[in-house]
């Protein structure tokens, strides 16, 4: 139960990045569609948990050391090569964004941008001195705190305002498709991270991790989404929707929010680097901490470039291609496992 819960924290930590913690992802994919968006949240969480279960079970059955072998099993050899490159670019680009986000938070508090970038680099690197267990231990400590703070903020907001009768309707016909799109957007980093986990756990631990992560994310997403629905008419005034929820809270809450957002950035950066290290450890015969340090040194200077334009090109491509791999993951259990699998 404990090890399964630690894996669940790793899953949640990979999913709850700066976009989720700030409320921006939930607003764009769910709350902007109105009250019916709660149905999309539930659908997304069900698909999410099932996808995580399939990925780890495939990894467990193959005893896969990294995500390439799992990709070949799910989408075939040729497409796996393409997704191998895309996952590398996705993990690298989002890690650059996370490092830049750390710098931006310190700028908000009138500190140096580079202190934030270098600080997160050092702290991410330190995790890899303890290998996989270090990553799991990190998330098992940070993620419960992160979820508790977000849940407390949303819970207090809803309790104080007692929001009832939220009653406009928008885009009802497309709300369920938004839930599918949210799952697809988040599935690529999970393939990279969970493929390296399945070979190290038992089937019961896989099941426990999927149930725990799905339950926690469902509860948090529904609570957060309901809060965003109540401040929907003020969202456009805030880059960070969470600030709209906390606008009437004491100033001390802004400090807590900044800490929560930074922790979300940190856990996402750790998970991304872990996925990259797992993929390259068979090609670079160095300790994991050394490989992780190499990627971190590569990421830091990229934060000075106009990387936003590159992301604007890659992210729409990720969205389209992720829908395909999500469909392949969901259909995978229906394959006849007893027949030889043609990887070509």
Automatic annotation (TrEMBL):
Domain of life the protein comes from: Bacteria
Keyword annotations of the record: Membrane, Transmembrane, Transmembrane helix
TM stretches of this protein: 39-62, 83-105, 111-129, 141-159, 174-194, 206-224, 253-277, 289-307, 313-334
Protein name stated in the entry: Membrane protein YkvI
